[in-house]
Structure formats: structure tokens, C-alpha cells
UniProtKB/TrEMBL annotation:
Pfam families: FAD_binding_6, NAD_binding_1
Coiled coil spans: none
GO terms assigned for molecular function: oxidoreductase activity
Organism per entry: Devosia ginsengisoli
Stated name of the protein: Flavodoxin reductase
Amino acid sequence: MPTRVQILKTEMVTHNVRHYRVEKPKNFHFGPGQATEVSIDKPDWADKKRPFTFTSLNDEPTLEFTIKSYRDHAGVTNALWGCEAGDHLLLRDVWGTIQYKGPGTFIAGGAGVTPFIAILRSLNAKGGLQGNRLIVSNREEKDIILRDEFEAMDGLETLWTVTNDPKSSLLQERIDTAFLKKHIADFNQHFYLCGPDAMVADLRAALEELGADVASVTWEK
């Protein structure tokens, strides 16, 4: 049975990403990196479910989602863009397989960084980020989600790359086998992957080819 919660606040993150701060149901628990299926409680949308990761921490009094809206597609994320404080969402069971196993490299494509937000925030709050690295690919520099927050996290190394922004001073490289060989010195570590399915599949194969232990690679199954 879905749980109905009210949107308390929305906040712009990038030109197409927003934070949605919503009510937290009583006795509602989740871990960093976990998600739930969300619907918009409006006619024609209540049965349309999409998975979104919690980007708040479990000890906070409210819930937060950080969601990219695809404005060129008439789907849930586009409809969410039209939601504001006072509207309601429907939440379902908590699930998710991206859980922190130890220091390593987090690799994300675009909005695939969202499952890592709560994990890295949790580690940051505990002073446990040393030895972790975040590598994120976006089309353009303006697409980077929470860049300032990640760069301010003590102990977290960040590496940004863009694939369609020739005016940017950031790396202009796709994350592929050649990229991994160039920018990662040690493959005997944990790896956390999230992004488009094809990207994740390619990176899993590339990491194995480069000597990473399959058991050390975590992705959303």
C-alpha cells in the first residue's frame, strides 16, 4: 500500500535537477544508497511508478530526493517539474543494492550520481571519506550535480569529465577502458557504478579486463 506524503519544498540544483523535500512517514527507515518507487498523487499519474534514491540521511526529520527532469519526454520526471510545495507523492517499499563496502572509486554517468549522494554525505558526516574518489561524466559542465558540495567534502577526491562542452576547462574524455587505465592506478579496490545501463555494463567488463575483482564492483542490480 503506497504511503502518501506532502512535498514541503522544492529547490533548484541545476537547470534540470531539483531537490524535493517531503514529509517523512513515522517509523520510515532507509540506508544510504537505497531507493523507493515514487508516483505523483494526481489524476493519471498515481499508477506511474519510477525509482528514485533518497539523498537525505535516515536521521533527518524529512526526506529528500534529487531528481533530474527530462523535459523533452512526457513522463514522471517532466510531471514532477510541475509539482511544488503542497502537492503529494506516493512512496512504496525501500530497496536498493548500492551499499558502501569500503573505500574505493565511485563512477557515475550524469544523474547516476544520485545513489552516491547519501553514501558520501553519510561518510562525510562521520569523517570517513579518506580514500574515496568520485568520477562523474556529464555532457556539459552546467549539468554537474552538487559539484560544490562534493568538492568541499574533506577527504573526497573528485574528477569531472564532459563529453559535449568544448568551452569547458574540465577533462573532455569519455569514461571507457582507456580512461580507466589513464586515471586509475590501482584496480585492487572497491568500485561503485551507476549510470545508463549500457555504460554500467561496459564499465563492469572494462574493470574486470583491467584486473578488478568482480566481487568488489557494486552496481544497482
